[in-house]
Specification:
Blueprint: H1 6-22, H2 30-37, H3 41-47, H4 51-75, H5 80-97, H6 99-108, H7 117-123, H8 125-139, H9 148-167, H10 179-194
Helix pairs in contact: 1-2, 1-4, 2-3, 4-5, 5-6, 5-8, 5-9, 5-10, 8-9, 9-10
């Protein structure tokens, strides 16, 4: 059995991502990716069973990058309230810094609806990061939430919708060039509901 080469595996992901920046997922095949890597299609299949598996790996690689970006932002914050804000700001910041990746992962690549519950956890690690922070804030009595998981999920979905509206110029044209301020306004509104006293203990 051939030994896996981590560098080649990472190159496959990188080249596949590069092709996805310019083409729709249904426009590229394993042979195209192999050609970009200067290897045979057989070599690609040694690492990924099919194109679906490879695209899922690309998605998870991007989401891991997003999680690292969020963790870096959270680490600089002191209070739980500040960490929740930092996590939301980092999510939006990564999307604005990597607009093509964000649109690919959040929209152009189909959701893996056949994944098992354990497999699905890999796709929602960023949500779980936010959930843990909100649960901590509830325990500290600085946040109000009867359902932290629902409130976190709504926050992430709504924040992405806000970011997407800027990236695709679907928001009011007056805000097309002020994406950060636009998303900051949403974040402030969300936090005013969950943290009615601004992070001060109830």
């Amino acid at each position: 059995m051939r030994t896996a080469d981590p560098e080649l595996e990472q190159m496959i992901l990188s080249k596949a991502l590069g092709l996805l920046m310019d083409h729709e997922p249904n426009e590229i095949g394993m042979r195209d990716i192999a050609r970009a890597c200067n290897v045979s299609a057989t070599t690609i299949y040694h690492y990924y069973a099919d194109k679906t598996a490879l695209l899922e790996a690309v998605k998870l690689d991007c989401l891991a990058d997003l999680k690292t970006y969020m963790e870096t932002g959270i680490a600089a914050a002191q209070t739980t309230y500040a960490k929740v804000r930092a996590s939301l700001e980092a999510f939006a910041g990564w999307c604005f810094d990597n607009p093509q990746k964000a649109l690919l992962v959040m929209g152009r690549l189909k959701a893996n609806t056949t994944a098992s519950p354990d497999e699905l956890k890999m796709y929602y690690e960023c949500n779980e990061l936010g959930l843990q922070l909100l649960e901590q804030a509830v325990r500290e009595h600085t946040a109000v939430s009867d359902n932290p998981r629902l409130d976190t999920s709504v926050a992430v979905s709504a924040l992405w919708g806000t970011v997407e509206a800027i990236l695709l110029n679907r928001a009011d044209p007056a805000y097309w060039q002020s994406g950060k301020a636009y998303t900051e306004h949403f974040i402030t509104m969300y936090l005013s509901v969950i943290f009615p006293k601004g992070g001060i203990k109830e």
